[in-house]
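Notebook entry, structure prediction.
Reason for the run: the old model in the group folder had no record of what sequence produced it. Starting over properly, with the input documented here first.
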Amino acid sequence: MGAKWEKIVYVAVNLLISSFNFIRSFVFLNYLNFFELGQITILQTLIQLINTLQLGFLNGGYRIFSLRKEINAKRVNETIFTYIFIVSVVAGIFLTISYFIGSIQDGSVVIFGVVTGVLSICSNWLTNVYIATQKINSLNRINFVSNIIAFSSLLFLNKIGIYAAMLSFFIQPIALVVLIFIETKELIPKRFYFTLNTAKWILSFGFIPYLSGIFSYANIQIERWSVNYLLGTEEVGKFYLAIAYAAIYALVPTSLNNLFFPKAMQYFSNKEFSLFSKYIQSYFLILLAYSIITILLTLFLSEHLIIYFFPKHLENLKYVFLTLPGLAAIHLIAPIGLVFNASLHLKPILWAYASSSLFLMIGISFMAYVKLYNLSNFALLNSSVNIYISIFFVLSFLLLYKSLKTNISD
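New structure, fully documented this time:
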């Protein structure tokens, strides 16, 4: 299979996976009550929280492999897996202490969230390795099989309820890890290996992008825990439709970024700037076409689908519409982010997301102060934060344009 077809199939497989996630989300909406949906949202939030503990090792390893530098792949791989083991031990100690002091209110959700989060770091790392080394065809197959296995757990939803829902999140990363280890045995770490020099070297490629991602995750954490604290778990459940839609919307842009990132980095590193420029333009046009089509389908079809399949969630559709402008904007700036990454102008990314967290906290504090906190205002604030980040990216790009041109001409 040619490289172009592999990429097309990769996006197609991810679309198929998105349809699985879409079906799973709406199965949850149909079978779980609002409190249970709130628990699932908290579970997903915990998984994301654990993923933030990777500290840039995954970002750095991905960039190292994407640049195809002369590296000791085994050493990098063992360092990253050793670090993941350290994270799991720390998480285990935290769980044990929390259990004995009685701070865990829903132990099953917390345990599932932490364990699944650690497994997700492993699966994300192995996925990064496969993408960076262009093993797209193998990744397509493994992604498809692991998601089918995870999806099958929903067959037990009527028997074990929310535990079947939680299992669907747990099974996918562990299935992916096992399948990749079976296919590529050299990725199985043979020893614990961790030195400060190797860690610093990996983080030199990934810490700033990671730190930017931390603020993005912080925004999610701040928003969801604020809704939970100010409005209650049931209201978090009502916001689940908008959260699920955002995750599904992001899948294609994320897939495209995974495909465009390694090649763009190589073009820029090799000073093939003409090819780099055309590549970025193509990337933007594809994202723009996707955004237009998706927005139109959402505006004209979503209400009919919700009325037909899930009428009790119709009133929650408004939160999807309120978050849609920001959702489209944040994904359309991905090509600018790729330019910043390739040219090593990383500070605009960091400052955009860091200041957006402050923007969000001020917005939530204001809502609490004037007692205007409701889901509609949280949805509007969510969209406003994403639009703010997008404007920051565009302005930074325009301000740095001369510097970027100088870099390219040099």
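Summary: The chain has one domain: 3-409.
The old model has been moved to the deprecated folder.
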